[in-house]
Amino acid sequence: MSSGVKRILWVFAFALFTFTGDRIGGEVLSSIVSESQFRFSRLYRGEAGCDLLFMGNSRGLIFYQPYIEEKTGLETCNLSYNAMPMSLARVLLSDYLDINPAPRKLIIDISMLDTRMDENLSTGFNCYTPYSARLRNFLKARFPKAWYGGRVSHLFRYNNEVFQRALFYWKNSDKDWLLDRVITPTLREKVKEEAPFLFTYTDEMLADLKAVVDFYEEKGVEVVLVVNPYFPPFAKKIANLDELIAATQAATGLIVHNYADSIAGTEGFGDYQHLNKVGSRQYLDLLIRDGILPVSASFGFSEGR
Amino acid sequence: MIFNSLAFLVFVAIFIPLYFALKGRARLLLALVGSYLFYGWWDWRFLSLIAMSTLVDYWVGAAIYKENDEKRRQRLLLLSMVVNLGFLGFFKYFDFFISSFVELLQSFGLQPSVSTLGIILPVGISFYTFQSMSYTIDIYRRKLEPEHDLVKFATFVAFWPQLVAGPIVRASDFLPQFRSDHPFEWDRFTKGSAQVLWGFFKKVAIADSLAPIVDQCFADPSSFGSVNLYIAVIFYSFQIYCDFSGYSDIAIGFARILGFDFPANFRTPYFSGNFSEFWTRWHISLSSWLRDYLYIPLGGNRHGTAKTYRNLMLTMLLGGLWHGANWTFVFWGWLHGMYLVVQRLFSNVWTSVMHTLKAPRWANAGLSILLVYLFTNLAWVFFRSPDFSTAAAVLQKMAGLEGFTVAQIMNKFLVAKGVLLIAFLLLVEISDFRFNYSSLVVRQPVFRLASFAILLWMIAFFGTFNSNAFIYFQF
Fold first, then answer.
1. Interchain CB contact of B392 with A (< 8 Å)
2. Is the pLDDT reported for residue A298 higher than 80?
3. Is residue B133, in this structure, part of any structural domain at all?
4. Does some domain include residue B449?
5. Which of B226, B261, B306, B392 has a CA 20 to 30 Å removed from the CA of B451?
6. pLDDT for residue A304 is more than 90
7. Do B407 and A179 touch (CB under 8 A)?
8. How far are the Cα atoms of B108, B134, B261, B429 from residue B173, in angstroms, in the given order?
9. Which among A49-58, B86-95, B346-355 has the top mean pLDDT?
10. One domain for residues B101 and B249
11. Beta carbons of B11 and B163 less than 8 angstroms apart
12. B101 Cβ partners below 8 Å, 6+ apart?
């Protein structure tokens, strides 16, 4: 055999080996995603049915499920994720209703209506594209590089933090996902130096939110919009929260319940924008007090789930 | 264009087949045009600088060689220095010195109305300036004959694989390699590709995965618990190593594919047992340049202890300043100079303490490596910080241990990914260091191709594909 033919055979063998390895690796990782207890894996398995459904960015994680379930006796599902953009939230919430039974109530923290949210986070959901045509079309239209990259290499589909979380919650529940830390004294002091905080929302975000509200209300789901708490001195730095609330109310026709400045003290905060587990409990008590979070007796529908 | 961009992939896919399809002069011209296209992709206006530097050194080199009068030879060398260092000084340091001067006057209560020019730094100017200067200096020292072919010389200065971030290749090593056409060699191709792939892995998978944590913490150190700053400093040491050595691997690998052999620029530097050894393992082409063209001409270690220390300090201070127009880089150089001086002062004490304690060799070596790594990290804090107040904030926070708990760790998943990748890097480097793993890859085609595939899978699974520029481009 000539050395030229040998080399061609080597290249062919190498390409075949690399391709096969990529596909086998992709299959292995896919099985982890599909078996995981992570919220989005359960969503796409159709095992995320609940009474109370939550959506938000990292601030939405303060809808701390163990405490809500303990206090209300209702089942919960929280689809919040760090830096969740509204466009992706719309896809996920639409898929939720396609695959899972309708919840009784959907609660959305509207602070996700901000261009600071990470649109690129959507590419992390490449690992769920095998389960959703809507997600596939969304990625193909918005993030073609990521989409086609995932077609070329199946391993690339799992090159993201979303997969890492699915791996982390492979065998255990993700309901306990919330900050434990307490805001540091330095950070507390630094708030004075912070520049004014401005929400930069777009019409497209409001339209996405409106579409979600309409879609859920059509299915008989009550939708509630809230603003979750901020560290009080930081809340004072937010220059256009009222404007955001007004725009949201005008777009959706729903009242926005503003809890931005509702939690006092420092022990309940992990940083300026996030409650920790202590603060979350205080906040959830407020939501129960105000009837935003119902208790099962008054809600009367959780039986049999 | 940068190596981790789509434009570069297209460039390489066209350049390499065309390069081997051509021969002789046509190939040389292609190499030059390709190199200028590669460089001009950033900003075509800077091509005039590299062309000017090339023409001056080409002419000065030939003139020095012909000249027998020592004074005239000196004047010619001075001309080359003035032009090269003049460009470097103006584009890299003018604004820095002006603003430093203004700050100095302001500290005396004066309010001078001097403004900076907002000059944009041409990418890679420090690298090709040093490379080009070494040519005229070597001719002046009668160690090298001038290159008569301008195209060949211009290609030597602008050769695209190592143009913007090294390694800084000496004319005496590089120019002779232009004498013959290098035919396509399968063995060179696969070995070169392996090195390119390893370089890409270090850059896009390791360095770029560590970058977000480092960037966040150094942007605002006071916002994070100290545990995050410890993580950020350790991550930075690996980020800059993988970023820079990754670039060198890609450059050396591509050069090897094209038929050229460049010397190694890094050799597992964090396994150094002392600082002299560190500088023979880190950015070898720069440290050897500084040794040969600065430290030794200053007198090296030939004129007594005090002058040796002075020469070490001067070399390291200028080495620091070479990296960037900022006092933090100068301080980084000063720290490394001090490390070398202190090491010389206390190496005997260290040896006798270890001897008295009857410390086994492995413990001595391990402790030395750890100490060198820790002090290198201390210096990296200044190198990475945009200013002294940031460096002070980082060190203060680290010393105070405020928020040194697991709960305070930000972005745990990114941190976990970073730790995993560093562990993989160390595993490969230890295997290479102890068992010469890379020679196995080179010798065994099956092993080589398996390594290729593993690296490709790892790049697909861990890579960051947002075309982050290489850190050393700014130098």
1. no
2. no
3. yes
4. yes
5. B261
6. no
7. yes
8. 51, 11, 9, 27
9. A49-58
10. no
11. no
12. B112, B114
Domain that holds residue A180: 3-294
Q: Are residues B173 and B192 in the same domain?
A: no
Contact yes or no for A190 and B456 at CB 8 A = no
Active site residues of B: 323
Which residue of chain B has the CA closest to A155? B461
User: Measured between CB atoms, which of A165, A180, A185 is closest to B413?
Assistant: A165
DSSP designation for A264: -
Report pLDDT digits (tens) over A245-283. 999 999 999 999 999 999 998 899 999 999 999 999 999
| Among candidates A3, A7, A21 on the partner chain, residue whose Cβ is nearest the Cβ of B457 | A21
Q: Which long-range contacts (CB under 8 A, 24 or more apart) does B57-61 make?
A: B57/B84, B57/B132, B57/B133, B57/B135, B57/B136, B57/B153, B57/B157, B58/B146, B58/B147, B58/B150, B58/B153, B58/B154, B60/B136, B61/B135, B61/B136, B61/B139, B61/B146, B61/B147, B61/B153
CATH number at residue A19: 3.40.50.1110
Mean pLDDT, chain B, whole residue set: 89
Range of the domain at B245: 188-474
Give the Cα separation of B334 and B313 in Å (integer).
6
Q: How high is the pLDDT of residue B90?
A: 84
Q: With respect to residue A201, please indicate whether it lies within any of the assigned structural domains.
A: yes
Do B328 and B433 belong together in one domain?
yes
B115 domain-assigned: yes
Q: Tell me the chain B residues in contact with residue A165 when contact means C-beta distances shorter than 8 Å.
A: 413
pLDDT, tens digit, 9 for 90 and up, residues B217-269: 999 898 888 999 999 999 999 999 999 999 999 999 999 999 999 999 999 99
In a domain, A301, yes or no: no
Q: What is the ipTM of this complex?
A: 0.83
Is A25 in Cβ contact with B457 (below 8 Å)? yes
Task: Mutate one of B186, B224, B461, B465 to test the A interface: name it (highest A CB count within 10 A).
Answer: B461
Tell me how many domains chain A contains: 1
Q: Please indicate, yes or no, if residue A181 is contained in any of the structural domains.
A: yes
Residue-wise pLDDT for B70-127, tens only, equals 999 999 999 999 999 988 888 787 777 777 777 777 777 777 666 666 667 777 888 8
> Mutate which of A181, A272, A273 to disrupt the B interface (most B C-beta within 10 Å)?
A181
Tell me, yes or no, whether B209 and B164 share the same domain.
no
Residue at token pair 């060190």: B395
pLDDT for the residue numbered B248: 94
Nearest to B460 among A7, A155, A168 (CB): A155
Instruction: Indicate whether B432 pLDDT > 90.
Output: no
